[in-house]
């Protein structure tokens, strides 16, 4: 296991830096919106996690790389002390990008030293948590970067060749899968890593339902738009309708109409909308309105979990109709690690699956992602149920 | 049934006016906050419901009392046309209070005429819906009025003798009731009236749990406050902690500290906090934080529904840990009536039970009340589970 | 002088109540916007001034009518203690309107007693200040009332017969009066009452200028509107242009277009815009943009003061191009009275003249009114200069 | 003259780049607050001015460097077309810093070509305007950079050796200079360059006054702070007092208290406050409150202009008590150049003099700088008058 852990550490850490290869120094700096962070911050924050949660506690004599970094790169953990305001991440010109890479290298050297010695179960668990944490930030790094680049009227290209651009359902035939009612067991049931919010396998009663084998495409969503979907309050939740009007939303994020044709910004630049590609970057409000317009609904997270083994999933985070709430017997861990998930269990909706931006090896049937219903900036899509 | 309906109509309508007996003309006018409405508006809006949904459609030759009222007293129904901004209800000095009472009388006369004739099932259903609607506004009238009067440094008295002031648990002994796991049937199962959001009885799997027989008292909550409950982020959801800090919340609504003693505004004026009385006017954030501090949690809405027959309930709206979501097979009705409940099924939490301000005959085991987690102005309290 | 003072007191106080004759109780309550106040508040606040500044200090043994009123009806005076938030004046349902009139009567009785005795110069000065203060609030009472009534879709009538509705230039011939350059003396030069901000007569150098004998009419302003005045940034100050766009301003306050015709709300109800009547309810931004479009400019306050004896003035508050700043040797008085004017000498523009809503006997050539450049709710108009 | 112009062009352009020598690439990117801009933007915007106002019009066959730059680097000029939102300058990662330097070089090459040919008076005037414009941005580049670096808890150093850090009055003796009343001529009277807002020499009548020979020091201001200056409303304009309370202002910008000692961020890093150095980074509200506390006042802009030849000035922008208004006969130029100054003549105060950050050769006795009264981020200080 130890060798695997060392290798896993190396792989995850290298993948983060590989994602940054196409960037200019300038790209590392800005924060376009308060819920997104600069690449520089992601690079440092995941490193800070290893330094603070692991090296400082488990490697004797370890000296922190820079005392200020605890303040600058603590994302949320209130237990650990003061932290920079989330909204000010984009004004921190120092440390420089070069210094952040030095920081990463410094921590990697000592992590290698630590992992070369005896590794307790507790330590292994923490390292695995740190790696999963870094994988989460790999996805955020991509989605946050897309947000910044999309604001630039020059529509800069991140990578020309990428599955991040546009992809399609495995099978273009639309089908309904049916399930009868009954008690099902849900929650993480394996022996590997999972987050605390997936734990405690438990029974749930599911009514009979049908679920679509494919995700909604751009073309299907365009039909909704052309049918006046954004102008008819009947399709929308009251709060969704207020959101549409306040922000004058007329399309998924990154879409723009030029002379009657729809284009969208992709990480390969501005492109005409491909009607056969899978829809992305919609909010829960939009997903729900589209489903209602179709005379369908979104699946619950447990319907999804039960049905998923028979579905082609992993291309979009799929909005469910379930609010993000604790599982029975959910217990908040002691200390800073306990602030990971439980603090956010109100006013968010569960997304299931994974997306084209999710790192390899970071998806599970029981995985519970969650965002506020108005967020569009993830690679989020729609699967219908009824 | 017809006689009963006429009588029921008369009873409900009169009770609304009885609630207003202690008011001065000035009290009918202001709107203290955008989510509360002036008494004058409540009086007229419930009347508008009968006029627009019933008289205009079912009483031939009926002439509306005043064309402007549709605009002024439509609360939400987007189907029915333009409506005044919710936040401007308090600046409408006309119609006067006297004119609003004339409006009520006008509608009552024609409703009596209508109900004296043949009453179809459809009509009866609409009248019963209108009466339940008016009962909901009876409670809102009281809670909104309390909000306005409480802002006045003169602490005006609404009624000296009232169960609205402070009340106690039936039994002062605290006890846990235990329930085993298994499948239960939930939802409205009777033959009477219920709202669309309670409909479609269905199975749900409930894990084993314990629930308290009594509601949390002011004294118990004071202990939380004295233990620094509002200063320790560990007890709070992240969003709750932000709410505490942004609004500098230090106590339930209407509480104020004077020279080290806690007082609260009640509808009988300013009074010292009674430690044995049942706690009221807490938000979901506070309820959840208190429960966490106690090492407990809030019950789910289905745990509550299963346990309630054995509980003393009806004194406070009890925050549950359930988000307000549609039941399986929930269907939105056609037309304006369909805008009643379904539009609000996101970002709100379910409260179960009823309160001292709830009108008689307007409570059920299956009743689902719902509010945003930051609202304190209802008579809302806490029951613990674990 | 004493007899005159008693009579003056009586006259001013009665005129306030006469203005309120056409009101319903409901009209006294609401506050439509934070810079306007309810009639009830005006009635009480001017009375509080006499009670606090005069009776409590100069009438031995005087007992305050109600201790809470100091908190409720102190408008600004920070010296005197806590005061209710300005924005919450409309939610105070108590004291009732009846109680406020009792308060007025109470104070009037004791003021009569006080004025029947020996009246020192200091006391006389304070009474005269109090009366001028009440006259200012008489005008505000009208303008604030108009704001509230105008929001009501029923367009209620305050008074059918009134010079407040629409009026015309004395002479419909437009003329330019010319003045040569030179040193002029400005500031209040008489022996009567004036505010501190008019005091200290001093020299000023005025360049040669021309000024219009008549005020701009609705018809002239309509020409500006029809020429696209609100759509062309060239006419506007940068801040004015931002104001136009943020609030989507398309006309003076109270104007609305119905099927291509312009109407305006007046205190006699909704009426078609009279092109020959004098324009009212424009902001400084609009006044300045109109002048620029005309190839003219607004007069400075000193140009106005020098030219006014030859003009027909008193129908509109006339926006000048002068910022509201202290005169040389302006000194802030000691104590609460000193908070009257000097505190506001930044970011406001001077208006000269008087309006149809100004109380008789409350206007002077040296009078300096002042408002933020975005305010439209006074009877404010435009006189051109070049 | 032509040779001089070429040389002047070269000098000013080089000085801008010299100011950027100490920067890292990261420092060029962020925008800390909407009224400040990133160094990258300043570098490009001043270049855009030469390209758009001069090369495109006066150099035949000139091809723009990049079409997108007009959108990205137009600061205000509404005449010229769409422009990026001011608040989004910090999220534009492209063009890169390297590309911006290429842009500068490109424009410099063609400007050199243009200036090597025949230079009309109109062209010369535009070039001189462009150079003065660039000098203004040199100062803004420094003040905006200071704002960003100061937010960084690492307190980065820009330059260790700099007059930008702390400087002193030429003569530590405080003295009053006296002036009698009378008519004075003000406005720019020379033959060189001046802005449109200084033009049209005209008479003004000045009352007798006294003015201080030295600027207020940190030590003097600390005395105000220690006397409770920020806690006593009596010293403040009403709007200033609201500003103090809303933003919890307790000191000049960049000051922080650490264990009872005051430090300030300077461009050489964090340093203890030097009581003998000249006070900097105060708002007009603070300047006015300090003066009032001292029993003095701020000079008017004309008092300053008359007295300045006898004063040691040029170290701080000195707040005056004059609002920024047009001079008599001020005329807005035709076209885009006309948007330079006149658009901003409302709600701003005049500052006179120059500061340690002002570029050499960019100061005059008649120079009128202007900012909103709440701005602290310029090197602004206080000179007393009475």
UniProtKB/TrEMBL annotation, chains A, B, C, D:
InterPro entries: CTDL_fold, DinB-like, EgtB, Sulfatase_Mod_Factor_Kinase, SUMF_dom, SUMF_sf. Residues 9-140 form the DinB-like domain. GO terms for biological process: ergothioneine biosynthetic process. Pathway: Amino-acid biosynthesis; ergothioneine biosynthesis. Coiled coil: none annotated. The lineage of its organism: Bacteria, Pseudomonadati, Pseudomonadota, Gammaproteobacteria, Thiotrichales. Residues 182-310 form the Sulfatase-modifying factor enzyme-like domain. It comes from Leucothrix arctica. Keywords: Iron, Oxidoreductase. The keyword Ribosomal protein does not apply. This is Ergothioneine biosynthesis protein EgtB.
């Amino acid at each position: 296991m130890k060798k695997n852990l060392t290798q896993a550490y190396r792989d995850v850490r290298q993948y983060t830096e590989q994602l940054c290869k196409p960037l200019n120094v300038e790209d590392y700096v800005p924060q376009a919106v308060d819920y997104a962070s600069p690449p520089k911050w992601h690079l440092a924050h995941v490193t800070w996690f290893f330094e603070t949660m692991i090296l400082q506690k488990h490697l004797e004599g370890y000296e922190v790389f820079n005392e200020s970094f605890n303040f600058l790169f603590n994302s949320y953990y209130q237990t650990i002390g003061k932290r920079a305001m989330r909204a000010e991440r984009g004004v921190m010109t120092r440390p420089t990008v070069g210094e952040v890479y030095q920081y990463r290298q410094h921590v990697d050297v000592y992590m290698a030293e630590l992992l070369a010695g005896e590794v307790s179960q507790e330590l292994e668990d923490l390292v695995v948590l740190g790696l999963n944490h870094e994988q989460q930030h790999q996805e955020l790094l991509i989605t946050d970067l897309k947000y910044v680049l999309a604001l630039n009227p020059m529509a800069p290209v991140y990578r020309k060749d990428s599955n991040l651009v546009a992809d399609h359902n495995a099978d273009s035939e639309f089908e309904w899968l049916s399930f009868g009612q009954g008690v099902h067991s849900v929650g993480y049931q394996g022996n590997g890593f999972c987050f605390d919010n997936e734990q405690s396998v438990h029974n749930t009663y599911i009514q009979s339902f049908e679920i679509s084998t494919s995700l909604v495409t751009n073309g299907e969503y365009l039909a909704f738009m052309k049918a006046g979907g954004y102008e008819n309050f009947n399709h929308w939740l009251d709060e969704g309708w207020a959101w549409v009007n306040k922000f004058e939303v007329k399309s998924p994020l990154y879409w723009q109409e030029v002379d009657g044709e729809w284009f969208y910004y992709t990480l390969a630049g501005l492109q005409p909308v491909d009607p056969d590609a899978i829809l992305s970057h919609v909010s829960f409000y939009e997903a729900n309105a589209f489903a209602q317009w179709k005379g369908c609904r979104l699946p619950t997270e447990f319907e999804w979990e039960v049905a998923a083994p028979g579905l082609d999933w992993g291309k979009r985070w799929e909005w469910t109709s379930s609010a993000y709430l604790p599982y029975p017997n959910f217990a908040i861990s002691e200390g800073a690690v306990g602030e990971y998930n439980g603090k956010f269990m109100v006013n968010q909706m569960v997304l299931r699956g994974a997306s084209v931006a999710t790192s390899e090896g970071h998806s599970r049937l029981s995985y519970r992602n969650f965002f506020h219903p108005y967020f569009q900036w993830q690679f989020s899509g729609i699967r219908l149920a009824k």
